[in-house]
Amino acid sequence: MVAQPQSYEAAVAELETLVSRLESGQMPLSDLLAGYQRGAVLLAYCRDQLQAVEHQIQVLDNGQLKTWDEA
Fold first, then answer.
1. Is residue 22 a contact partner of residue 16, using CB atoms and an 8 Å limit?
2. Per-domain residue ranges of the chain
3. For the whole model, what pTM was predicted?
4. What is the distance between the terminal CA atoms of the chain, rounded to a whole angstrom?
């Protein structure tokens, strides 16, 4: 079973750390595949969380997605 992050923010932080390690070229070859797989899990988790929030906003806005206007 794959460990799920505790939150969206935790997933993003772990993903950033993982990407840095992968890009550094210092990760052993034996860890590269596991790192890539973990990154895919984290990315899917973040995508699912964002889609859930988007769905909640659509429900609150009666099914219409509105543009985000920053004040």
1. no
2. 29-65
3. 0.74
4. 44
